[in-house]
From TrEMBL:
Domain F-box: 1-48
InterPro entries in the record: F-box-like_dom_sf, F-box_dom
SUPFAM superfamilies registered for this protein in UniProt: F-box domain
Region: Disordered, residue numbers: 203-223
Protein name, UniProt field: F-box domain-containing protein
Pfam families the UniProt entry points to: F-box
CDD domains to which the protein is assigned, alphabetical: F-box_SF
Length: 674
């Protein structure tokens, strides 16, 4: 039966299933199809946009109001109908895959440009970055000099609002979501500020608090005074005719709450409306709109899933994370009982970790001691959370806890096999191999050199190997970070040795066998663990659940993209992954000190040297060759035990560098250049 003989609705539905770039090719088939496409073009592309996840299924009008919550104005520029909208989104998807033009640039965000202090020359030293692409603002904190929180225009870099918190600290951790800004003080408190603009998802006006707000979390006088000073500076920077007593320029924040921690906390993660903070043995969940602790997860250090068997082991000392902290855990559960073995001490990062305290120092020293018990978190390296789960990455184990509100819903089919009913999944970082399918970069496959694309595409070499239950060899590789996907169904864990573990549909793995978990994990080696170290991890989702993971190692900045994960994907077929490296950034000295990586819809942001060098300079310095050689120099086959030391990586050339005498600013990779 010819397609054109079918009823109109069926024909339109079938065409919408085609790849978007193929729809336009239908017009070449015949004049009949040309006229058909021209007549029904808007309906066809609207159906295709919905089917491919670019818009929700109920979006029937072009540029619906709810689009503003998902798309920035720049990502919709030039989109005048459903066809041009689909073309723009497809172009953006291709750019993330290194198949369309993209540009990199250093954003001039000089701290010293405030008019009231024109003579002061402050080193740049941007520490943390948060992006709100919908509102076109960049929020940063500083590493050295007077502590500052600065809000700037995303397009121009111009300062909009500038807070100098009286009790602030350098290297302050920064959280932002839905108009709420959170950073930590020198004391055991966190300041919460709210964007003055009304276009947030919070149901109350910016000046109001809910009736059940905890008055113990009210802002103190210090925050109120700091707010007045910041507002005065913002008005001086603003030339609007509306500059009246009650006027608040764009980008201003107001004090909302002061959260007083119950104990010293090591890590935090905010996803509106919940802030997760982790202490040594407890995790706290704060409801930010009300300023209340709504749940405490106790006993996180020693919570176990099952009785563990003894295994031979070897330690892998790596520097403590210099950023946020999240969680990780392995498909196997090993308990080791062996004498403690001290390994050679190596230099720690020059950038202090967030929320530094005495027990954090103990965890850093633990990185040089062979672990006695792989079920214990020890130091908290990273945390994250979704609506149903809390992720806590310790040194050699990642633990996932179900939130109390989700135990009877999200995990209703799980029967706890441990005394800690909220612990549902663990993953330890002591394996030579973590999954059936392992992905390693082919060093000679790099393409796009010399083009208008700022990304270099690589191919993966994919190997398959069945799980070996009798494997006794160990490679201890501390967790660096963990991130749950925005949809809450998948997570990615980064190990210190440039290794990325992607776990799709982890809820389906709860209570399953080690082999089932092993068959599900995607094991990705981005560079050699003997001459590179992981630095930072970010996880975002594109249209239709397409995944985007950004990873910084001391050998490069990588973007791993993949199509949506579907349940019950056959284990004998590897999931297709794509990987690109950002072309410009290859200096191990600069990469080792990247303190933040952020992904948005159309940008990638990092902290990096104020003055970059071009690719030709990197090639002259040998970094491209070093990167390729590094992909070849580590083979796990035949290894019984392996001890990795950062002394294997840092060379004299790479250590000839002073962080505190170098300007670090915001660099941007633009995936949708004009």
């Amino acid at each position: 039966m010819a397609l054109e003989t079918l009823p109109l609705e069926i024909t339109l539905h079938i065409i919408s299933y085609l790849p978007i770039f193929s729809i336009n090719q239908i017009r070449l088939l015949s004049r009949t199809w040309l006229l058909f496409l021209e007549e029904h073009e808007n309906v066809i592309y609207q159906k295709a946009a919905s089917l491919h996840g670019m818009v929700s299924g109920h979006s029937t009008s072009f540029a619906a109001p709810e689009w503003k919550k998902r798309f920035s104005s720049r990502s919709l520029a030039g989109a005048t109908n459903w066809k041009t909208f689909c073309q723009t989104r497809l172009r953006l998807r291709r750019a993330w895959n290194g198949e369309a033009p993209s540009t990199t640039a250093c954003r001039a965000l000089r701290v010293a440009r405030f008019p009231e202090k024109p003579a002061i020359e402050v080193r740049e030293q941007v520490h943390r970055i948060k992006i709100d692409e919908q509102r076109k603002i960049i929020i940063t904190t500083t590493a050295v000099g007077p502590p500052r929180v600065i809000v700037r225009d995303m397009d121009t870099g111009a300062a909009l609002w500038h807070l100098e918190p009286t009790l602030g600290r350098n290297f302050s951790h920064l959280e932002y979501s839905e108009g709420f800004l959170i950073f930590n003080r020198r004391t055991d408190c966190r300041e919460v500020w709210r964007l003055s603009e009304l276009q947030t998802n919070h149901p109350l006006p910016h000046s109001a608090q809910p009736e059940n707000f905890d008055t113990d979390s009210s802002p103190d006088d210090t925050m109120l005074q700091d707010s007045e000073a910041a507002l005065s500076r913002a008005r001086n920077l603003n030339t609007s005719s509306q500059n009246t007593a009650n006027y608040r320029p764009r980008g201003c924040f107001e004090p909302y709450a002061l959260l007083r921690d119950k104990e010293i906390t090591r890590a935090s993660r905010f996803c509106y409306p919940t802030l997760l903070t982790a202490a040594k043995d407890q995790a706290y969940l704060w409801d930010i709109p009300t300023g209340k602790v709504v749940e405490v997860i106790k006993g996180i250090q020693n919570a176990k899933l099952a009785v563990i068997s003894e295994q031979r082991h070897v330690s892998r000392p790596i520097r403590e994370s210099n950023g946020d902290h999240e969680l990780g855990d392995d498909d196997g559960l090993e308990h080791v009982n062996a004498p403690q073995v001290l390994t050679p001490e190596v230099s720690l990062s020059t950038i202090p970790a967030d929320d530094f305290d005495d027990w954090e120092l103990e965890s850093e020293l633990d990185d040089y001691i062979a672990p006695q018990d792989l079920t214990t978190l020890r130091g908290i390296h990273y945390v994250d959370h979704s609506s149903a789960h809390t992720f806590i990455a310790g040194q050699y184990i990642l633990k996932i806890f179900a939130k109390s509100t989700a135990i009877s819903t999200q995990c209703k089919d799980f029967k706890p096999i441990n005394e800690h009913e909220q612990l549902v999944f663990t993953l330890s970082s002591s394996k030579l191999r973590y999954g059936r399918w392992r992905y390693t970069i082919d060093p000679e496959s790099g393409s796009n050199e010399g083009t208008d694309c700022s990304l270099v595409r690589y191919k993966f070499d994919i190997s398959e190997e069945d799980m070996n239950p009798s494997q006794t060899s160990r490679l201890f590789d501390p967790f660096k970070a963990v991130h749950v996907s925005p949809c809450g169904s998948h997570f990615a864990a980064l190990l210190s040795g440039a290794r990325l573990l992607i776990v799709p549909h982890f809820c389906d793995l709860i209570g399953q066998s080690q082999e089932t978990v092993y068959n599900s994990i995607l094991d990705v080696q981005l560079s050699s663990p003997t001459n590179s170290e992981s630095v930072y991890l970010a996880y975002e989702e594109g249209d239709g659940g397409e995944g985007r993971i950004g990873v910084v190692t001391t050998r490069g900045i990588f973007i791993v993209t993949f199509s949506p994960f579907f349940p019950n994907h056959p284990s004998h077929i590897p999931h297709p992954l794509r990987v690109c490296r950002v072309k410009l950034y290859m200096d191990p000295r600069g990469l080792a000190n990247v303190s933040c990586l952020m992904l948005s819809d159309t940008y990638l942001f990092i902290t990096y040297f104020q003055n970059g060098r071009d690719v030709a300079a990197w090639r002259l310095l040998g970094f491209v060759k070093d990167f390729k050689d590094g992909l070849r120099d580590f083979k796990t086959k035949g290894i019984n035990s392996y001890v990795l030391s950062m002394n294997d990586f840092f060379t004299e050339r790479q250590l000839d560098f002073d962080f505190f005498q170098t300007d670090y600013t915001v660099h941007a990779l633009d995936l949708l250049p004009e």
